Amino acid sequence: MLTKRIIPCLDIKDGRTVKGVNFVDLRDAGDPVELAQRYADEGADELVFLDISATEQKRKTLAKLVYHVAEAINIPFTVGGGISSVEDVDILLKNGADKVSINSSAVKRPELINELVAKFGSQCIVVAIDAKQIDGVWKVHLVGGKVATDIDFFEWAKEVEARGAGEILFTSMNHDGTKNGFANEALAKLSSLVNIPIIASGGAGNISHFADTFKKGKADAALAASVFHFSEIEIAHLKQELKKEGIPMRT
C-alpha cells in the first residue's frame, strides 16, 4: 500500500500566511518562509503554497516568494494562485516549485489542463477544486470560493482526470476551517470515480480526523493549515499516531 502524505498548506495574501473559516475572516498566521522551513524540519511530506488573492486581483503568483520558500525546504512544493498559462507555470517551476495547482483557470478553459500536461507532464499538474454542498449536491466554486457555478463536482473531477491531471486537491467549503473533520463521504465517492491521487482539504481539527479521512474518505493525502500554523498538532506526533492506527506513513 502506498504511504499517505501529510501536507501543510500556506494560504498567502499580501506576502503573509493567513487562515480563515469557510474561506472568510482571515487572520495572520506568520511568515511563509519561516513556516515552510519549520514544516520541512518537522517531517511534512509536501507543502502547498496558495496565493489566495492572485486570481481575485488578477495578478501573478509571487514568484520571488516562491523562490525563497523553495530555497528553504527540501520537500516537494506545490504552488497555486493566478496561474492561467504555460508561461506562468514555466516561471514557477524555474523559481523552485515542483508542481503547480490550477483551479478557476481550468474551469474557465479546461484545455489549459491538456496544454500544461503536454508541456510539463501529469506529475507536475494538480487541479484544485473548491466545492460546496448545497441542497445535497456538490457544486464547484471559483475565485477562492466567491463565485458559485452549476458545475457538478464529481463530473468535473472525472473530466480533470481525463484531461491528464496528475492529482486532485479537493477542498470542501462546508468544512474549511471548522475543525469538525473532512468531507469523508464526498471523498470516498470521489475515490471510487477517479484513479489519480486525491488530497483532502478542509476540516482538520484533531488527529482522529486525519485517520478518518485516510480510512473512511480513502484520501491519498491530507492537507491542513491552522492546526499546524498555530501548533495545535505537531506533524511528527501526528504521523506516529497514524502509524499506530495501521496507516502507512513516510518516516
Automatic annotation (TrEMBL):
Cross-referenced SUPFAM superfamilies: Ribulose-phoshate binding barrel
Q: What pathway or pathways are given for this protein in its record?
A: Amino-acid biosynthesis; L-histidine biosynthesis; L-histidine from 5-phospho-alpha-D-ribose 1-diphosphate: step 5/9
Record-listed E.C. numbers? 4.3.2.10
Single Gene Ontology BP term? L-histidine biosynthetic process
Q: Which InterPro entries match?
A: Aldolase_TIM, His_biosynth, HisF, IGPS_HisA/HisF, RibuloseP-bd_barrel
Q: Gene3D superfamilies per the record? A: Aldolase class I (3.20.20.70)
The reaction(s) this protein catalyses: 5-[(5-phospho-1-deoxy-D-ribulos-1-ylimino)methylamino]-1-(5-phospho-beta-D-ribosyl)imidazole-4-carboxamide + L-glutamine = D-erythro-1-(imidazol-4-yl)glycerol 3-phosphate + 5-amino-1-(5-phospho-beta-D-ribosyl)imidazole-4-carboxamide + L-glutamate + H(+)
Give its localization: Cytoplasm
Q: What GO CC terms are in its UniProt record?
A: cytoplasm
Q: Which UniProt keywords apply?
A: Amino-acid biosynthesis, Cytoplasm, Histidine biosynthesis, Lyase
Query: Molecular function terms in GO for this entry?
Result: imidazoleglycerol-phosphate synthase activity; lyase activity
Q: Which residues form the active site?
A: 11, 130
Give the matching Pfam families.
Answer: His_biosynth
**Broadest EC class assigned to this enzyme:** lyase
Please give the subunit comment from the record.
Heterodimer of HisH and HisF.
The entry assigns this protein to a family as follows: Belongs to the HisA/HisF family.
HAMAP family given in the database record: HisF (MF_01013)
Q: What does this protein do?
A: IGPS catalyzes the conversion of PRFAR and glutamine to IGP, AICAR and glutamate. The HisF subunit catalyzes the cyclization activity that produces IGP and AICAR from PRFAR using the ammonia provided by the HisH subunit.
Name this polypeptide is given: Imidazole glycerol phosphate synthase subunit HisF
Q: Which organism is it from?
A: Flagellimonas ochracea
From which lineage does this chain's organism come? Bacteria, Pseudomonadati, Bacteroidota, Flavobacteriia, Flavobacteriales
